[in-house]
Each structure stands twice: as C-alpha cells, then as structure tokens.
Design a protein that fits this description.
Chains A, B, C, D, E, F, G: Its main location: cytoplasm. Chains A, B, C, D, E, F, G: Belongs to the GroES chaperonin family. Chains A, B, C, D, E, F, G: This is Co-chaperonin GroES. Chains A, B, C, D, E, F, G: GO terms for molecular function: ATP binding; metal ion binding; protein folding chaperone; protein-folding chaperone binding; unfolded protein binding. The structure is a homoheptamer of 94-residue chains. The first copy, chain A, has 94 residues and is mainly beta. Chain A has a single domain, classed as GroES chaperonin (10 Kd Chaperonin, Protein Cpn10, Chain O, Roll). Helix content of chain A is 0%, strand content 48%. Chain A is built from no helices and 11 strands. Chain A has a 6-stranded antiparallel sheet, with no helix packed on it. The interface between E and G is medium-sized, with 20 and 21 residues.
C-alpha cells in the first residue's frame, strides 16, 4: 500500500473508451494521453501558515480528471500508479 | 457531471456571433479564438492562509469572459468543457 | 454590461490628442500606444490572507494611466474594452 | 494632476549637473542616465496582508535617487513624469 | 551519524528488485534510477510563519518513494546517503 | 546626506589591502572586486506582514562584507556610494 | 571576527580524507569539491512574518554538510571562510 504525503493523492489511470460520431469505439492507444484516474489513497492534506491542515477535497474511490503531464509515476507491487498534488486535480466526475 | 476542485469553474464555450460594420454575420470560425463561456459548475473556493474558504465570484449560468489560452480542456460524456481557475476569469457579462 | 472579477477594472481606451511644440495636433495613430483610459466598471477588490476584501482605489468615471501592454482586450456589444488588474493602473488623472 | 495608486510615487526627473575633476561642468546629455528625481505626488501606500496600509516613506518635495530603468514614463499636460513603486526608490537626498 | 536540518530527511537508497512479466529478476542496474529509500534520520520539521514547527510526516525506518533527481548526495563514514526535503517525498510504502 | 529607504543601507567601499604569502602588499586594483564597505546610513527597516518594522542589523560605522554585484551605485556630492538591501550584507567585521 | 547577519552561518571548510575500497587515502585535491565545514559563527536567525526570530539550528563548533556551490566566499585576516544561509546546510555530523 502507498500512503501519500501532505496534499498528495495516489491514483490508478483509467483508460477512457470513447466513441466517434459514427459510433466506433476507439481503444485507449488511438486517443490522446488519458487524464482520468481513480483515487486509491489520499494524504492528510497540506498545512496552512496558521498550523491548520486542510483536508484534501477528493476521497478514495472518486474518479477524477487531472492536468496533463502532472504527477510522479510510481511502480509498486507490479502495478503502476500516479501520485498527484491536489492542485493537479481539476475535477471529480460525479 | 463534473465537480471542479478549489477555485475552479467548469464552463461550456460560447461561440459569439459577431456582425461586421456592414452587418454581415461572421460565424465563429472566421473569428478569433472564443473567450466566452457559460458556467456549468463552480468549486468550493480557495482556502486562505487563515483556513477560511473564499466563495468563487461566479455562479452556475453566468456568462463569462476568460483570458485566452487559459484552462484545461476536458471531454466528458461526449461534450467538451474548459476548467478554469477563478483567476482566469476576467469578467461576468451582466 | 461587464462586471469585472476581484481587483479587475474595465476601461475604455482614451485617444489622447497631443500637440507638438509648434502647436500641430497629432492624431492618435501618429503617436505611441495609448496608455489612458476611462473606468467603466470596477470589481469588488482582491481578498487578503485574513479574508478581508480591499476596495479598488479607482471609481467609475475616473481617467487613469496604465502600464503599456497590460490587460486583456475584450469585445462586448460592438465596443472594445480593456480589463486591467488594479496593479496595472499607475495613476488617476485628477 | 496625477494621483498615483498604492505605493506608487510620481516624480519629475532632475538633471544633475556634474563637474569633472578639472572643474568643467558636464551637461546632462554627456552623462549617464539620470537617477535623480523630485517627488510630485505620493500614493496612499501598499496594503499588508493584515489589511493595514503602510505609508510611503517619501513626501512631496523630496529629492530622491531611484534604480535605473525602473518606473513607467508618463506624459501629462505637456510635461514628462516617471511613476515609480516605492521599492524602486533607494534613498532620499537629505 | 547525520542529523538533518529543518524538514530534511536522510535516507539510504533501496535497490528495488523487479520481475519482468516472464518472471526474470532484473538487477538494479538494468532498471531505471531507483526512487525508493529507507529513512535513517528525520529533521525537527519546518517552521511556519506563526512560529510553530510542523513535524515531518515520515519516521526512521519508513520505506519511502521520492521524486527523481531530488535531494543532495552525501558520503559519510564510507556509506552513501541522500538528504531530501520532506516535499521531495511523495509516499510511504505501508 | 543620503537617507536610505526601508531595509536599505548606504556604504562607502573599502579597498582592502592584502598581502601575498611572501608579504608583498597588493593594491586594490590587482585584486578581486572589493566586497567590503563601511556603513554610512541605515534605513528604518522593512515592514512585516503584521505591520511591524524590523530594525536593520547593522549600524553606522560598521564594517561589513556584502555579496558581489549587489546594490545600486550612487554618486552624491562628488563621492561614490553603494546602496544595499540588508539581505545583500552577509556579515559584520567585528 | 565575522558576525553573520540573519540566518547566516560562517564556516571553515574541512578537507575530508577519504579511503578507497583498497584502503588508499585520497587527499582532498583528488576528490570532489568538499561539502563539509566547521561552524565558526552563527547569526541571530531569520525573522518570521509575526516578528519572531527563529534561532539557527546549528551551533559554533558543529561539523556540517552543505549544498554544493552555495554560500559566499569571504577572505578575512588571511583565512578563507564561507558564509552560508541556514537553508544551504543539509545536516549536522553528530
């Protein structure tokens, strides 16, 4: 298990299937770099200048969209993860 | 649905029709890059150093003008959105 | 109408007529890039780290001088405006 | 009249006459870029993160020395001024 | 012994063995630059603007993952260590 | 007289004589750029975010060492001075 | 004597002898740039935004390791010193 520090979040990448206008499903490799992930671990949050910790706005299990080219790629027990700062996450898919 | 984080705002782009001096309507493609959008989701706001959250100054439904080349383009359920930081929004069209 | 966000200010450009030493009036095009404007809308002000908002130091109707090349050009209802940050405004013409 | 914003200061440039070792007076054009000015208007001061305003350390009438290449050149009613940030002023000539 | 300052952490590098899909063990040299370490010493933590010290989130003995190319390499008593800032550590391996 | 602003300090450069190992005195021109000065005027100090002013750590008459290439050169009443920020001063020669 | 300002620390460089695997002692010149020093003077510490001073974490006599290429080289009374910011010191050798 990976326990991220501060406002970091560990995610698994999600290959988003996408249909063309004519209904053909494009596999992940024929698309742009994926920007979707599923949260698998969440840090304790960043510490403000007044000493208070701010809880991260995402929770384990959330599907999120993140900024391209952000984060640190990590291999752990044969699987690949991406560790993001909270500020790299733009939205939760609700 | 997309739920933006922090001071982020999700918008749909708005193609602004524009008439030339002689009254001819120019479609979007003959114009500059659009800078108008309609707000579809608003984050909880950024956290100040005193722990307080500052509500974002725009609301769902607002038509806004944003800085060129800002934001993260996101495809979701077949539609295209732009996720902006509040600081990328320059004005609300009232 | 445009409602600027934060410490932003919407201005109309002012073409400043200028006379040469010999009294000949130079129209705007024969001069340097204008740096004068008239304030048409003012934001609520920026938020300090203590949560307080600081009122912008200019008011609607003020004629101001701003730093060259600053601001975002915006077309709205056929007219052109410039949206500035308060920090781009150097002085009010009193 | 020009009313500078925040911690800005409006100055008139002062051509400093300078004598060579042999006593010859060099006019301004034969010298380096002037760095001296006389204060003609002073802003209300910058706002700290606690909401307090800090009065600018110079007053109208002070002769000051400023950092080369700083400030915004402004023409107003036929005269030329320089608008400086307080931080561009290095010393008052007492 | 090394006593790191502020939010710094001293680690020993850990050569992570990794098996290929076919089960062959690749020694460290055939892999990417290692990003794993074991914490051997922890600083007192960084000081906030309110004077409070924030304890570092890792403890001696923790196995951690850090950002590539971060830290200062230090040789001490024949052994090699890496001194990291807490912000260079992305996760604890739990 | 020059009255420096904020945390600025006015110094006169000091040509440090230096002897070679064999006892020959090298005049200033045969050496590196001098980094020594004598304090002739001290500003009121910088203002913290809580509105408090922090007194500068040097006093008039102190001999100090400063970082190379820092400060603003100023000519005043025929003499040359250097105006430094307090942060450019590394040590007092006691 | 040198009295460093703020969070600065004056050190003497320490030439670290190092043995190769076969036991041969390499003199300093055959090695990398030294990164070890002995603290000879310590400043009063940096001032926080709340006006409080934070004592430097090292004391006179401590042997320390610092980041390569940091600090200001200073010659004083025939000896050479290095003036570091506290943040350039990575660890105390205990």
């Amino acid at each position: 298990m990976l326990k991220p520090l501060g406002d970091r979040v560990v995610i698994e990448l999600v290959e988003s299937e996408e249909k063309t206008a004519s209904g053909i499903v494009l596999p992940g490799t024929a698309q742009e770099k994926p920007q979707e992930g599923k949260v698998v671990a969440v840090g304790a949050g960043r510490v403000l200048d007044n000493g208070e910790r701010v809880a991260v706005e995402v929770s384990v299990g959330d599907r999120i969209i993140f900024s391209k080219y952000s984060g640190t790629e990590v291999k752990h027990e044969g699987a690949e993860f991406l560790v993001l700062r909270e500020s790299d996450i733009v939205a939760i898919i609700g």
